[in-house]
User: Which sequence fits this backbone?
């Protein structure tokens, strides 16, 4: 179907290097200064070389004014969902609605186990994530008078108090690649957040994944457009080349316009930890892409071609 | 009962989720009013409270000095291994302001409703093992085989910025004994208006501490006092016995009311401080902090740790400290110093020198820790680490005069000068510190156009061996100023450099990779091309032994001090023609971009082995010998840097760096000292002089290579005057 019609958002994907905490915070500030919308950080709580992502998210939100922050994506197995939900609401309240919840099922089970976490199979991990989303949404759902009960296999809630409520509708974005995760994304999430380098099937894989999400959304009685599609991308600015996202900003704009209008993405998050690239991304790519996409969406021919 | 801890005050706040800004305001007010600690109550099952950990990180970003803690964190709801990394992260982000208060949680039903499993004091002890194990710099993976917590080979780290104290909350005997065995503090609610039996609890803690071989004074005792109202004077009277007779040294005021905070800060805290000081002095109680048994067990003999000056104590790092792994080694050398002092001001540098002089151990001085000669760490001795003295400021725009601390890195200097269109040629790497380089020479990317770094030096301020702070320039202490420019490490510790920067805009930066199979011919050709080039070209060459099945590759880096693309290409072309070119990249970039480096500390191992020599020309004889050295396998890194040009404009007698006629500086790094020395000594007759920063050979002849006789005689005369006791002797000592 694609082009789900969302406004475009642009962000950074920052390595939370423990060796240089203030440089990490500096990249988040550079994200804001570049006019981007979102700073995100990977979360691997079993890796000693990284700062704790939750701590960093709060610190960074406190040191910025406009950008939203999110993990990309948060490791659920080492972060109990009820506490996570209240922490997320707290950060959203403190930041005036600038927090989004990028969430993953976890993948490195040996490392998770070494940290004292529970080792699950990938299939169990998806079911655990599904239960966790119920826990998290249940905590946030303060207007629900019903007793809060989740009788999951992996997570249980037994009459816990609901709240606090976040300041805005926090988006739950899932890092998903395999069919079960994609179906969960369609059924329960507000966003799909894969990394382009992890999709060896390229455009075909994107099309297939979108279709799975859309079908699962419809099956759950949801509008597929309720699931925003965001993408982690790498690339370089420089002389034009045959390679994807390796060229001048105009080439990026053209290529990302295709991803937007034909493959449904509406959020682009730039990897690479390079402040100069963030500046170009925010100052040149983002406004030009917004303009191009807006023009194409207005034009009946363009939107037909897009579909 | 008074353990003699310094008296501190803090606030304990329940942060309402309905008014998130209020908690932040209370934290900032507490800091402003001089409270030393802000703690937030942690009950992660309560929707009316903000999540404590999130709030702590938020508040850390909005405060500067106040310490942060929970009171206490609910361990069953916060997995300890993740909590440990989070704590280290927050300590790093906040500059060492975290205290980690832990507890088993008080409302078991609410915890269970949110899916948490309650734990016993024993499990809390296991959690402490997990947390400390994650923070440890031990290189083995962490295994904890507890009944409640099991870790199976987790990575350790990151290390926090300081030894995060672990405080435990609770009143029951099991918890009190746990505190005696394992904790750094006891945190409990105590109502001073209703005197209870605090002493009995203290005795239980002390008994358990003694059984565990600990000094009870290692454990700080907190009292959380309830809602504060009524006349301040009554509170002073009630709090005094708590401190002087019952062992409490940190008083946490539980309140959400800014008015109460202000009134406590005005009426109670100063009066209690005064009365406690008077009481302690009449009872003869010494005020001090006792380091943990762990820290004490790792101290080195020969260093009087208790005598570390108060001005330096808070930033000092010793082997048992959390931050030790990050400061023990340098870029090239593994170290195990007994003490690292990190002064923030010239006055503190003087304190450090005075202290170090009294200790019968080695003294090393460190600015960036990047030195190839590895002299900025040692084993068992003292390091004065100047990293805190990293200011960079413009003194006068007209004359391009800049003032730079020894701990700044050259990459930071380049970035700071770039907006003015200025640069200072330094070395070839932005991670190098200012001090070590600017007291020896400084052979950098713009050397042929702009000379050595020391040639831009106009004045220094330094701390001498006797602790005197002095200034040296062409008119004040001109002899000292002469000596600092080439042999500075022998004369004192420079605390500020004043340089005259050059106007430098974008430059051409090329990296060329050659097939240098005919190595000698390649070296001759590159040398001739460099010498023939105008001064705006400076080039460095790196080679190593060829990999099996690969050609001999030479990497040539070249900087052209011009922003004109045609000039850049014109200058580089003759170099590109020297041998078959395998690959090349040529860019026009801001000078600061060449000096940009990724962040990171040093983790050198072992001892560096390197030799240095200065040569006039890459003669056929030298080139043949160098080719043999490279192909012989005794060096894994061989570099030639061009000098000459503006470097040679300065007369040899003008600075202590005297070998001004050389056109090239040659460095070889080896794995084996004996093998490299044998190979190098055999070719040393081709060289005349050396550059001290790249030389690790400690044989006395090297002194004669470094300094011509007249220079050395003058240096020695000055050394007798400025450092007669040879305090500064660990880096290329000139006393014969």
Assistant:
């Amino acid at each position: 179907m694609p082009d789900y019609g969302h406004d475009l958002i642009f962000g950074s994907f920052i390595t939370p290097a423990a060796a240089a905490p203030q440089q990490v915070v500096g990249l988040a500030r550079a994200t804001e200064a570049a006019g981007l919308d979102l700073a995100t950080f990977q979360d691997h709580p079993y890796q000693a070389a990284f700062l704790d992502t939750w701590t960093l998210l709060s610190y960074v939100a406190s040191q910025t004014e406009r950008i939203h922050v999110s993990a990309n994506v948060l490791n659920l197995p080492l972060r109990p969902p009820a506490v996570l939900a209240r922490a997320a609401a707290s950060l959203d309240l403190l930041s005036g609605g600038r927090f989004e919840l990028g969430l993953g099922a976890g993948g490195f089970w040996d490392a998770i186990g070494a940290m004292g976490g529970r080792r699950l199979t990938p299939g169990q991990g998806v079911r655990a994530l599904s239960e966790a989303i119920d826990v998290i949404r249940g905590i946030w759902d303060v207007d629900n008078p019903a007793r809060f009960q989740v009788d999951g296999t992996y997570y249980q809630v037994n009459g816990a108090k609901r709240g606090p409520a976040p300041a805005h509708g926090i988006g739950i974005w899932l890092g998903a690649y395999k069919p079960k995760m994609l179906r969960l994304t369609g059924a329960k999430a507000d966003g799909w957040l894969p990394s382009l380098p992890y999709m060896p099937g390229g455009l075909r894989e994107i099309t297939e994944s979108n279709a799975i999400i859309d079908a699962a959304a419809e099956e759950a009685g949801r509008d597929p457009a309720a699931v925003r599609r965001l993408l982690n991308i790498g690339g370089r600015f420089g002389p034009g080349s045959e390679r994807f996202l390796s060229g001048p900003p105009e080439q990026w704009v053209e290529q990302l316009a295709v991803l937007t209008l034909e493959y449904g993405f509406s959020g682009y998050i730039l990897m690479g930890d390079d402040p100069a690239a963030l500046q170009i991304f925010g100052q040149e790519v983002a406004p030009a892409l917004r303009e191009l996409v807006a023009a194409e969406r207005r034009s009946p021919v363009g939107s037909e071609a897009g579909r | 009962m008074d353990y003699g801890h310094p008296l501190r005050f803090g606030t304990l706040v329940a942060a309402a989720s309905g008014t998130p800004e209020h908690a932040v305001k209370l934290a900032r007010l507490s800091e402003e009013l001089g409270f030393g600690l802000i703690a937030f109550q942690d009950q992660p099952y309560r929707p009316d409270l903000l999540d404590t950990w999130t709030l702590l990180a938020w508040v850390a970003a909005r405060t500067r000095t106040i310490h942060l803690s929970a009171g206490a964190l609910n361990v069953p709801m916060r997995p300890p291994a993740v909590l440990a990394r989070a704590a280290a992260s927050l300590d790093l982000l906040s500059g060492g302001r975290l205290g980690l208060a832990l507890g088993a949680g008080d409302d078991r039903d609410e915890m269970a409703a949110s899916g948490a499993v309650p734990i016993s004091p024993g499990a809390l002890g296991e959690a402490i093992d997990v947390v400390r194990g994650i923070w440890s710099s031990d290189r083995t993976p962490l295994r904890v085989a507890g009944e409640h917590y099991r870790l199976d080979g987790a990575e350790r780290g990151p290390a926090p910025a300081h030894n995060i104290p672990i405080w435990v909350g609770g009143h029951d005997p099991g918890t009190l004994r746990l505190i005696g065995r394992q904790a750094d503090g006891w945190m409990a609610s105590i109502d001073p208006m209703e005197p209870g039996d605090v002493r009995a609890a203290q005795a239980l803690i002390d008994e358990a501490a003694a059984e565990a071989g600990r000094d009870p004074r290692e454990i700080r005792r907190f009292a959380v006092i309830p809602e504060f109202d009524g006349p301040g004077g009554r509170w002073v009277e009630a709090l005094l016995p708590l401190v002087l007779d019952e062992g409490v040294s940190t008083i946490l005021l539980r309140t959400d009311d800014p008015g109460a905070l202000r009134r406590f800060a005005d009426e109670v805290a100063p009066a209690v401080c005064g009365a406690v000081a008077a009481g302690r002095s009449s009872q003869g109680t010494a005020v001090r902090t006792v380091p943990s048994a762990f820290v004490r067990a790792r101290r080195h003999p020969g260093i009087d740790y208790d005598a570390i000056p108060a001005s330096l104590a808070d930033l000092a790092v010793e082997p048992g400290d959390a931050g030790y792994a990050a400061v023990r080694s340098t870029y090239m050398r593994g170290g195990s110093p007994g003490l690292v002092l990190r002064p923030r001001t010239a006055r503190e540098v003087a304190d450090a020198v005075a202290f170090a002089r009294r200790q019968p151990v080695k003294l090393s001085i460190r600015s960036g820790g990047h030195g190839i000669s590895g002299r900025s760490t040692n084993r068992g001795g003292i390091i004065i680490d100047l990293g805190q003295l990293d200011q960079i400021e413009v003194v006068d725009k007209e004359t391009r005069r800049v003032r730079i601390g020894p701990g700044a890195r050259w990459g930071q200097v380049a970035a700071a000068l770039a907006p003015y269109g200025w640069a200072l040629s330094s070395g070839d790497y932005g991670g190098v510190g200012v001090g070590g380089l600017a007291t020896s020479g400084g052979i950098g990317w713009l050397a042929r156009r702009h000379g050595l770094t020391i040639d831009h030096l106009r004045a220094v301020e330094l701390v001498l061996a006797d602790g005197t702070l002095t200034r040296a320039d062409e008119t004040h202490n001109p002899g000292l100023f002469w000596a600092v420019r080439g042999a500075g490490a022998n004369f004192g510790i420079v605390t500020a450099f004043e340089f005259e920067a050059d106007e430098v805009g974008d430059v051409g930066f090329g990296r060329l990779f050659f097939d240098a199979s005919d190595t000698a011919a390649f070296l001759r050709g590159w040398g001739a091309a460099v010498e023939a080039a105008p001064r705006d070209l400076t080039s460095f060459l790196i080679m190593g032994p060829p990999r099996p099945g690969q050609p001999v590759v030479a990497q040539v880096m070249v900087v052209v001090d011009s922003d004109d693309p045609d000039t850049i290409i014109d200058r580089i072309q003759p170099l590109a023609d020297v041998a078959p070119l395998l690959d090349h990249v040529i860019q026009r970039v801001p000078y600061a971009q060449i000096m940009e480096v990724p962040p990171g500390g040093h983790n050198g191992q072992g001892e560096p082995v390197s030799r240095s020599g200065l040569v006039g020309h890459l003669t056929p004889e030298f080139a043949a010998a160098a080719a043999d050295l490279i192909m012989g396998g005794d060096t894994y890194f061989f570099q030639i840097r061009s000098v000459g040009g503006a470097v040679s404009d300065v007369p040899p007698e003008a600075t202590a760096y005297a070998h001004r006629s050389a056109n090239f500086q040659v460095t070889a790094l080896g794995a084996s000292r004996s093998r490299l020395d044998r190979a190098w000594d055999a070719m040393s007759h081709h060289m005349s002089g050396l550059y001290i920063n790249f030389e690790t050979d400690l044989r006395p002849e090297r002194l004669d290579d470094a300094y011509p006789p007249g220079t050395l005689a003058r240096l020695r005369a000055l050394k007798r005057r400025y450092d007669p006791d040879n305090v500064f002797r660990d880096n290329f000592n000139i006393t014969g």
